[in-house]
């Protein structure tokens, strides 16, 4: 699924200037960044209400390139700058995490298996 499709499904807006044609293979909905580390990440989108620098740093570690902030949360300029420097696409949607995850699931995006090595 492309970022542009995610934007359409979630009625999302983009906070960064990255590419909309990036291909996404799976998704993860989580507010606890320690739990984000428990998933394998390749071409993954993170849906979260955690609008902070730690979320972006965690995505850098696990090689996640797209973050969707749920519940109309907006990142600070500092968060946007860090994401742009890291090549991470930041989106925002008015949907709750539950609703956003459900909409993406219905559109065919699936989650990844938990990595029990952590």
Structure description:
With 118 residues, this protein is α/β, with parallel strands linked by helices. The model has no long low-confidence stretch (mean pLDDT 90). Helix 2 (33-36) links the parallel strand 2 and strand 3 (44-48). It has helices at 3-9, 33-36, 53-62, 77-86, 97-106; strands at residues 13-14, 26-29, 44-48, 66-69, 89-92, 110-111. A 6-stranded mixed beta sheet has the order 1-5-4-3-2-6, with helices on both faces. 35% of the residues lie in helices and 18% in strands. The chain has a single domain (3-111), classed as 3-Layer(aba) Sandwich (Udp-n-acetylmuramoylalanyl-d-glutamate--2,6- Diaminopimelate Ligase, Chain: A, domain 1), CATH 3.40.1390.
Helix content: 25-40%
Tally of structural domains = 1
Which geometry do the CA atoms define?
globular
- The CATH class turns out to be Alpha Beta
Q: Between the first and last Cα atoms, what is the distance in angstroms?
A: 28 Å
Q: List low-pLDDT spans.
A: none
Fourth-level CATH superfamily = HprK N-terminal domain-like
Question: Which fold does the CATH topology refer to?
Answer: Udp-n-acetylmuramoylalanyl-d-glutamate--2,6- Diaminopimelate Ligase, Chain: A, domain 1
Q: Which sheet architecture does the biggest sheet show?
A: 6 strands, mixed
Query: So, CATH architecture?
Result: 3-Layer(aba) Sandwich
Task: Indicate the radius of gyration in whole angstroms.
Answer: 13 Å
Q: How many beta-strand segments?
A: 6
């Amino acid at each position: 699924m492309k970022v542009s499709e995610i934007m359409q499904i979630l009625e999302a807006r983009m906070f960064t200037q990255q590419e909309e044609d990036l291909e996404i293979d799976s998704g993860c909905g989580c507010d606890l960044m320690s739990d984000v580390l428990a998933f394998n990440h390749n071409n993954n989108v993170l849906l979260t209400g955690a609008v902070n620098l730690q979320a972006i740093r965690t995505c850098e570690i696990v090689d996640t390139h797209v973050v969707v902030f749920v519940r109309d949360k907006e990142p600070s300029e500092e968060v946007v700058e860090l994401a742009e420097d890291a090549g991470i696409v930041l989106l925002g949607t008015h949907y709750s995490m539950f609703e956003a995850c459900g909409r993406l699931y219905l559109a065919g995006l699936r989650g990844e298996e938990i990595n029990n090595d952590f």
